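ok here's the first one, seq then struct tokens
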Amino acid sequence: MPKQQRKHEARPSRHTRRENERERYARAGDAQPLREFDRLIHERVRLGMVSALAVNESLTFSDLKGLLATTDGNLSVHARKLEEAGYVACDKYFDGRVPRTEYRLTAEGRKALEQYLDEMEDLISSMRKR
């Protein structure tokens, strides 16, 4: 007996799925779809990093590692992602013979953090009204 072949239907694009969700919520009355947060900032270590840099002019790698209670490798991966996005700037220099890495929040990073916080405040506010 020959194996039945399944026809794979193409999965709807993310845009199509989002539109379908909006239509479903529109039919549900007042229900509002959850916003998509900036995933780059939403992750715990990256959120901690941009938050710490928002209240400090700059912080060293060691300072951030201690504040965020994370490993060297984990922090460097997250810092690189934020740097590639233009959210943080990294300066490397030597203090005597000791290499130092210092991070600061860019204007773009501050704007992204403020937008993220506004979205979180809106979500919290809408939940408290219910």
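and now the second one, same deal
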Amino acid sequence: MVSIPTPGHPVRGSTTGRPIMALFDLVGRRWALRVVWELLDGDATFRGLAHRCDDVSSSVLRDRLRDLTAAGIVERGDGGYRLTVDGRELVELLRPLGQWSQRWAAREHSVENGHARSSSEEVH
């Protein structure tokens, strides 16, 4: 069983214990962000969430819900699973990364279609 990443402890890819590295380990796990995004649409039962997540396997969904619940991002209530206040705050903080990723994708698409990058866009 893989341990749940927590600030102050080594995580995959980092031994520093930095909170940001624990967060990236947590949200970088298979299906973790998808579960969070799907819960933006409201509470969901386990089965309903599995369906929203394109029928993710029950073992993977169970593991992600365990991780996200232990981290305080998801909680279980009367209507099923839902985002906590911290979970909703995390989503708001991730929105700028989503916007950045859209610009990045557009640049990459442009390069793939034969348009050169400007010198300010070159990766060093």
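notes on #2: Residues 75 and 86 are 10 Å apart (CA to CA). The beta strands are 74-77, 80-83.
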